[in-house]
Amino acid sequence: MNAFDTFSLTPALVLDLDNLRDIYQNLAAENHPDKGGDKQLFEKINLDYAILRSPAKRIKAIMDHQGIEYDARGAVSNDLMDLFMLVGALIQEADSFIRKKSAATSVLAKALLEAESMELQNKLSERIATIESNQSKITERFASPINDSELPQIARNLSFLEKWQAQLQQRYGSLF
């Protein structure tokens, strides 16, 4: 049984996420182990919900359903390579600052880092917004027919964008 079957949905790139959430909440409530539900089924419901909420994982689920091979080791498309370089540099900058901030022991040393922290927060926010914009551009294509041969590249692009977004959000959270 695939993720779509768990929620009695037809495999599709475009999903009504509000409807998915409602179905998930009902299934999770009905099958919660604290209410006598099956623990493995409850875990599958949670896993499948995460799969369907993520555009990258949803595409992979569709590809699996259709028997289309997927190789995660491929590269991102050329239009995302520049973003990859910017994200990598920003992650290094954030990691360096986080180390510097954790080494600061006095109140004065921490206060002196505040302006740099604010600047880094702004950079991270801007880059996260850029990633979200790229994700939106890709997922907007879901409303139109997409050739099956394009799905692996789209899945890779979205996977990288989701990974970069999570990495930047983690660094952003570490600044506080």
UniProtKB/TrEMBL annotation:
Signal peptide: none annotated. Coiled coil: none annotated. Residues 2-67 form the J domain. This is J domain-containing protein. It comes from Rubritalea profundi.
